[in-house]
Design goal:
Length: 349
Amino acid sequence: MKKRVKLITGGLFILGAILGIGLFWVIHNKRLDSNTPNKPSLQSQNQSQPSLIQEKKAICPLDGTLVPDKWANNRPLAVMIENSVPARPQAGLAEAQLIYEALTEGGITRFMAIYACQEPTKVGPVRSARIYFLDWLSEFDALFAHVGGNYDALLQIKKQGILDLDQFRYASAYWRELQPNKAKEHTMYTSIPKLKQLAEKNHWQTKGDYPLYQFKDDLPPNERKGSQVITINFSGPAFLVRWKYQASTNSYLREQTNGPKIEAKNIILQWVERWPTTSPIGEKGYQMKTIGEGKAQVFLDGQSIEGRWKKDSRKSRTRFYNSQGQEIQFNRGQTWIEIVHPGISVSVS
């Protein structure tokens, strides 16, 4: 009996010792862990670092900026956007890579915004095509979104084989946003993703292949000019545009009555000849000299570069050269091409 008690007592002692050692080990390790930075798990490490797909970047051929690889070789898409006062502020202009502004009938300017490396879901108001814009969009073999057009423009769209996303045919990619006291013609909008889906559905080529501009990096802040204002008076106060240089961002801020906030990296003034026309059905309009060469003035880095523009054929890229005949390198970012002609007042201060 005494022997059994001794065995039980000895066993309990050994068990207690084991438990004591185990408890000490747990407490000791806990203290060490509290003084050691937590090591993230493999899962948390993967979540905290961008994937290779997310990190992969490429240069946008249209504006020279770094963009997700999936956008780098998109086929450009041109959209006609109106600039009448009731249409302002427009949607989607800030996301375009390149914008042309030209005077149409009635002293009203119109935009052709070209997208390749951004996909805004609201662009507009969308309006009708004009013939002189066609030679510019043909430089990029761009898809073309618009709402109808005058006789000459629609005839040339068909004749030239431009891939046409006219709202009259593809209404599903467009919608109206009706508002009180706003005429219906100022309410049509579209979406770049919707237009791209239509192009894919039509089995059109959605990859781009077009000549590029030359791009450079911004000048260092200490080399930029302090101030510069470009004023273009197309036809009166409602269509007077000012571009004010901002040295801090090395960009030009657009000012126009009720217009959206726009910051561009390059402003180009392209002088062309312009004359009135009458179509076979009696429509009054204008034509412009888009092929050939003429005077140009380029603004970037707060500087003004006098030169010339040259375009050899409908599909060739318009090139801009300085007074020494060297092709001008542009800053990476949005470019505005302002189409001007005699009768339009331009001043730089």
